[in-house]
Amino acid sequence: MAEISIRDVRKSYGKDEVVHGVDLAIYDGEFVVIIGPSGCGKSTLLRMIAGLEAISSGEIAIGGKVVNDLEPRERGCAMVFQNYALYPHMSVAGNIGYALKVARMKRAERDAKVAEVARSVGLDEFLDRKPGQLSGGQRQRVAMARAIIREPEVFLFDEPLSNLDAKLRVQMRHEIRRIHNRIGATSVFVTHDQHEGMTLADRMVIMNKGTIEQIGTPEEVYDHPASVYVAGFIGSPSMNFLAGTVEAGVAAIRLGNDGRIDIAAERAKALDGKLVQIGLRPENLSMVAPGAGAITGHFEFAEELGSGRLYHFQFEDLTLTVLSADKHSFQPGQEVGLTADPVHVHIFDGATGARLDTLEPMRRRASLEVAQ
Amino acid sequence: MRRAYFKNNWVAALVVTPQLLIIFIFFYWPTSQALYWAFTLEQPWGGGNEWVGFENFRYLLSDDRYWHSVWVSVVYAVCTTALAMGMALILALFADRQLRGYKGVRIGLIWPYAVAAPAIGLAFRFIFNPSAGVASYLNYAFPDFWNPVMNGDHALTMVIIAGAWKQVSYSFIFFLAGLQSIPRSLTEASAMDGARVMRRMWDIQLPLITPTVFFLVIINLTDSFTDSFGIVSTMTSGGPARATNLMVYKIYEDGFRGLDYSGAAAQSIILMLLVVALTFFQFKYVERRVHYS
After folding, report:
1. pTM above 0.95, yes or no
2. Which of A76, A358, A372, B261 is deepest in the core (most CB within 10 A)?
3. Range of the domain at B104
């Protein structure tokens, strides 16, 4: 069993605190993706789990054992680095088998194991090559094999796909998921790429400026973002945001001068008179006749996506995007009505950016998990 | 690689002339003079010379004292290089770990490079003096344990230690730079693979700085052969009984004390050829084993 529990972990470099008290519980065998923009502390958190970075305060336990003062080799973690960190002077076989060599495994046994692991990632033809003679994807596989061969309880990934081209990245993503399903080690994967995060994760941890914004399954995070920050970070094309005031009398949010978006009556009553930010995903907006919609936008241009089109509209001083499978041909400047189903309207506090409906239950869940 | 282009050649010539002039005055001209003298018999007080062909070389190569000097020089060069590089490497490996206070240590280790050889020689002469220096305490505890004034092996050891000390800082700077150019993620990866500090140094860091090691071996050996005069002159004057009579010191002794200019010139030529051959040999055979990433 290798569940990871992180309690109030902080990291500071001198006076600068970069991780401000993170609480997180990762279950045995789970695939957790930590995602956030660069500088949000996600890599630092991963490196603290690995033991490559000292923990300033708080506690990290792996499999019930506090590892704060343990060396990396005593923690049972394997790690795949962003730049692969392959040993350039060793052959592929040497790289993959290095951990076993250090552990004093017998030569014959080691070679057999290396061959087996190399075959499982499709590297058996390249065992005698040096890393410099391999392509990016092959190097990536060597890095994976080097981690797999140790049969770790915890698998750590530090942005391992960011040096690959787009096609290979998708391919390796699938491979990582396959390997995870096969060996079942607890995995923590750090990335800034939301596609990687959404597709790989059992649960996602969204970080911003050294704190956790939200923990949840990709679906939860997408459907119920806990804050404006998460809502804007997750989802592509990204969410539209509009400022408005809730009016209980008409069960709607008043937007700008003449925009009005309907919401459920009880939600409107609870938030009457409040200044809010509403979030609308491009795929939840639909285009209707001018005047018939909640707001009227002026068409700017459309982007062809093949499966659909992304329409850009000007509404007052904002740009709104609408994703639709329908192919319209609007003239620039043409007025188009835009409308949204009330269930897909995300409402956030205008001042704090926090979600104003389902936020509390989500937060409570996160802290319950830590308490376990 | 950036290249500079000049519109007209005489600007280029103007730029390189000072350097060419310096090289000519301080290297080619003296060398050619020495080469000429090596084939003549020069009068000690001037006034003409006589062409003697290879006579100077023939005499040297049949002289046991000269061969002894070559042997002592080789011992000195190999030992100094090994000792200096060994110490520099250990210091650099630990400085690279950035333990507490390493910045101070780093500066402290670079300073000795700025100390002139005779000053080092004097300092070590005091330290190793059998009756008055630091080593006299050793002799007090163990009588006759240390006496470089009488014992040739002791004297050679002393000169080697002083010479090595002088060269440690130079090698240290290069080793530290080499180690710091290794991506930190490589040592981190080997730490994750279970290797401890010493194992990481041996398996990862050392193999990756072999180009630096190769460079330093050449520089240190060359320096030990050609740059040991200051230390020998201040510490032992080549004694006792020629035990520390290194080739450079013997050139000075024979030429300026013994006034055998021709013999000294022939020795300089041999020394130069020796260093050239050594460097050539290393580039030809040792460099193959160097891993350039």
Report:
1. no
2. B261
3. 57-289
- The predicted-structure confidence for A198-233, as pLDDT tens digits, reads as follows 999 999 999 999 999 999 999 999 999 999 999 999
Q: What is the pLDDT of residue B5?
A: 66
Cβ-based neighbours of A27, under 8 Å, separated by 6 or more: A3, A186
Per-residue pLDDT of B57-83, as tens digits, reads 888 888 888 899 999 999 999 999 999
> From the list B196, B199, B291, which residue is nearest A89 (CB)?
B291
Question: What is the distance between the alpha carbons of residues A356 and A231, in angstroms, rounded to a whole number?
Answer: 13
- Other beta carbons within 10 angstroms of residue B3's beta carbon come to 4
> What is the per-residue DSSP string for A26-50?
E-TT-EEEEE--TTSSHHHHHHHHH
Report how many domains make up chain B. 1
Is any Cβ of chain B less than 8 angstroms from the Cβ of A50?
yes
Q: Could you tell me the domains of chain A? A: 4-229 (3.40.50.300), 230-349 (2.40.50.140)
Angle made by CA atoms A282, A283, A285, in degrees to the nearest 5? 70
**Is residue B12 included in any domain, yes or no?**
no
- State the CATH number of the domain containing residue B194: 1.10.3720.10
* Facing A72 at nearest CB: one of B192, B199, B293: B192
- From chain A, the residues in CB contact with B195 under 8 A are 73, 98, 102
Question: A79, B183: Cβ pair inside 8 Å?
Answer: no
A89 touches chain B (CB under 8 A): yes
Instruction: Please tell me what DSSP assigns to residue A60.
Output: E
Residues of A in contact with B201 (CB under 8 A): none
Is A81's CB within 8 Å of B185's CB?
yes
- Check A150 against B193: CB less than 8 A apart: yes
Strands A240-247 and A252-255 come out as antiparallel
**Pairing of the two strands A252-255 and A57-62:** unpaired
Give this complex's ipTM.
0.81
